[in-house]
Amino acid sequence: MADRIDNELSRHHHHRKSRLPRPQTPPGIPPESAKKRECKLSFGVVCSSNINRSMEAHVVFSNAGLNVESYGTGTLVRLPGRSAMEPRVFKFGTPYEEMYNSLAATPEDEAFFTHNGVLQLCRRGAAVKPGPQRWQDMPSDFIAKHNIVVAFEERIFDAVVEDLQMREPTEDFRPIHVICLDTKDNPHEAKIQGRVALELCWMLEAADDLDSEAALLVDLFQRERMSETQIKVLYQL
Length: 237
Fold this sequence. Notes:
The chain is α/β, with parallel strands linked by helices. It has helices at 2-12, 32-35, 53-63, 96-103, 107-115, 118-128, 140-143, 154-166, 187-205, 210-226, and strands spanning 42-47, 67-72, 77-79, 88-90, 148-151, 177-181, 233-236.
């Protein structure tokens, strides 16, 4: 795959510089070449509640040495409860530790939410940052630092794009590349797609000219990966 991308990019440029190799088994230690220079891009990863898909990607990206922040776009943080009609609901900004304590308030609750995996998600979140952050509530100056935003569902992609279109441009406004990598909202799929997202984002991190190369890289990546597994990628500048 890398050879095809390099061939196509070499036709796109008169010359190209050396590129970062992509890690084979993320998360983990970043490639040696990644240690030799500071990462130049900033990544945002977004799901609905900032506890499963975006947090998985946050951990994977961070472990691999990329600059990353994670967010949700929902109105509230909704976690699986004892039935589909009884989700456990928290406000954005509620500390993950507080969520954990609430969900483990009784031995019965602790056993149930350990079994369905929600306590593990809260514990992981607390190890990364204080609490879930809502994309739409973040200041424009903070959002504007991102070069690339990865949304893990089409409706979340739509919400991010709509929010960006409604914001007033910042003083140092620059393009933000928004990519959708459609992912089912469960820990297993989040783990798989977190690594797919990392592979794509290492390619983008290595681009000599992100604004001119990003669409080509995303298209080539999708065509190659579609032969291995059915993934859906949307892209908007």
